[in-house]
Give the backbone structure.
Amino acid sequence: VVVDGNQVQDFELEPFACTLLVDDDTGDTYETYYAGALDAAGVDYELWSVASSGSPTASDLSDFDRVIWFTGDDSSTTLTTDEQSALTTYLNSGGKLFVSGQDIGYDIGTTAFYTNYLHAIYDSDDTNNYTLTGLDYLSGVDLTISGGDGAGNQSWPSDISPTGGASAVLDYPSPHLYGGVAYQNSTYGVVYFSFGFEGINNQADRTDVMSRTLAWLGGCQCNPVSILDVTAELSGCTAT
């Protein structure tokens, strides 16, 4: 029997999605707006439905460099105590979080998590205003969060202000305060929108805002991996 020791086998590894999309909209279908933006931006992700799978634990979140979490129209269980605890552990371990929802401040605006991890001060429940101008990494962006092909669900877009070293990234027209804040330190990064991203009224702007936000948060660095002298690139990400 002759054994050829120089066999070559070509194979392809599935990309590992380092971004988790947490659908926490109490059974609505707003995930389509986030998924559409991620797909258009070329970002691989996994979808977690709280309605069907329960809230992700800190262990679940730890498998991902970045988490996108949205709460839709919910106004009473946006980020529960257990979810805040899981996200606190995730962020303290180096995570990156983009969270969006029109009633998060209304629901948990007095909590330590809201102040110390979302780095926001809750101002008012309903600005009754549907245009925002980008600041900081969103400079040059002008958004409308009603009409168009958006979700059309922004009944209570809130305004907030940054705290604890955060920066404002979306500005309502005066006299309202801000619609988005961003914060990074040497451990974690957070972007928080006090309205629903799903309300942005066109696909191009949703994709642009998603791309800029994930690029600013960073994470998801793809490195070559060697398995038995076979090198493969795991490319489930776009930002580093």
